[in-house]
Design brief:
Layout: H1 9-60, H2 64-153
Helix pairs in contact: 1-2
Length: 154
């Protein structure tokens, strides 16, 4: 009997390569998302620190020029925070799309692997049947030969 040959092996290999590429893309997006979230957190932390400083200075007495400078800086930070939130939201959306593509590709690969396993199980079953048939044929031939030898002796 010939060796097992899965007819869709090349398709399976290609799908697995696609899955690996999407996984790498997802990892890159995840890294970018992490950096952008850190950037957002730094902006928020910076804004909180400046607000705290402004409150301290206001309670201790601050001149108008410094207060305006702090308020302007806080407005700029607020705008940067909103912009950064949009960047993070956009990357999250990209991440979710990529994750969805990865899940679809993983399902395809699993489906092809299950098909391969079923076909291999069928191949194995047929192989074992063929092997058993050969063993039975050998046993029958040996039995007939022994019977012929026994009758020749009589």
């Amino acid at each position: 009997m010939q060796q097992f040959d899965f007819k869709m092996e090349k398709v399976l290999d290609y799908r697995q390569q696609e899955e690996d590429m999407i996984q790498q893309e997802l990892t890159k997006i995840q890294s970018v998302l992490k950096k952008e979230k850190e950037k957002l957190n730094k902006l928020v932390t910076n804004k909180c620190e400046i607000q705290t400083k402004l409150k301290e200075k206001e309670s201790n007495g601050i001149n108008l020029q410094q207060a305006v400078m702090y308020r302007d800086h806080l407005e700029v930070l607020a705008a940067e925070i909103e912009e950064q939130k949009q960047v993070v939201a956009q990357i999250k959306e990209e991440f979710e799309k990529c994750r969805s593509r990865l899940l679809d590709k993983t399902k395809e690969c699993k489906m092809l692997n299950k098909l391969k396993e079923r076909q291999f199980a069928n191949y194995k079953e047929e192989f074992l049947k063929e092997e058993q048939k050969n063993i039975d044929e050998l046993a029958t031939n040996n039995f007939i030969r022994q019977a012929d030898n026994n009758q020749a002796v009589i």
